[in-house]
Amino acid sequence: MAGINIPGVTDQYKTNDTVEKLMQVERIPLTREQNQLDAYKSQRDAWREVNSQLTSLRDSTKSLYSHENPFNNKLTIFAFFKFIARCNGVSPLIFCSLGS
Predict the structure, then answer these.
(1) pTM to 2 decimals?
(2) Where are the domains of the chain?
(3) Burial class (CB in 10 A: 0-12, 13-18, 19+), 95
């Protein structure tokens, strides 16, 4: 006695496997694009990190050449000592070496 075959219920011809393999082949371009998108996102994140580090470096160098320069205070004191030494007729080098 031959088996009863109802389309869509039985899988005598393994159509589900065939359909799954065809769908995998159809998904290849999508998978490739998703992998490329992930690579681009990774590159974007790396460039953002580089940009962040460069911004930090730029801000640090600006602070060295702006009014927030930590060396400005020392330069001002040195210039003040130099001025006082000239007013008193003392050599600035002698005065500064005695003051330090």
Answers:
(1) 0.47
(2) 18-67, 69-100
(3) middle
